[in-house]
Amino acid sequence: MTERVLDWEGFLNARDLGGLRTGEGRATRWAAVVRSEDPAALTAAGWSGLQQHGIRTIIDLTGDDEQEPDAAPRPPELTTVHLPLDDHSDTDFWDRWGGGISCTPLYYRAFLDRFPQRTAEVCGAIARAEPGGVLVHCGGGRDRTGLIVLVLLALVGADPADIADDYALSHVRRAEQCAKVGLGDDTPKIEELIAEHGTTAGDLIHEAATSRDMAGYLRSGGLPDADVTALRNRLLD
């Protein structure tokens, strides 16, 4: 897993989704989709590394109130698509699943059940992106990004254990991220919260990844068959 980590200057939680085996005997394509935290902290060298990796499109899952100015100019050749994943107008959902729970995979299955259209919209943007790599990010690159990555990897038949391992790597990188800026790592609190619900992060990821046929799920959210095919073709070697 660690060979997929991308050490672009300004990033601490970026990695390529390539190199994972699928049930079809194929592997996920290198440099097709990258996951990360908000790229606003990238230096000029970091942006250069991103472009050299082949990234051409950035999918931003953060809300309007989370937008931060870029520390170094964002290359004009990049296309940024802003698609906030969380619909906070649905107060019933967030009253139940917000707060600390939304910083864990505890809410993943419930989110997928509630928001198929929103999930499909993000996946459609990835499917229809211009040729080249796509970077998907939220704020810290763990929870919202992790949810979309789960859908993508489940769609192409990646082993749920590999999907869980990929999620766990975010905690490793997060700990380093927090140490860099002098903050405490929230991983122990997250593990404690999940344990209070009688489960583990790995089990939650496995359950969410196997809870539905992802192609059918995305179609139910409005993603056309052509985009489902394009998404699979983008992700697979």
UniProtKB/TrEMBL annotation:
Classification via Gene3D superfamilies: Protein tyrosine phosphatase superfamily
Tyrosine specific protein phosphatases domain location: 109-174
SUPFAM superfamilies in the record: (Phosphotyrosine protein) phosphatases II
GO MF annotations in UniProt: phosphoprotein phosphatase activity
Superkingdom, natural source: Bacteria
InterPro entries: Prot-tyrosine_phosphatase-like, Tyr/Ser_Pase_IphP-type, Tyr_Pase_AS, Tyr_Pase_dom
Family of this protein: Belongs to the protein-tyrosine phosphatase family.
Protein name: Tyrosine-protein phosphatase
Species assigned in the record: Saccharopolyspora elongata
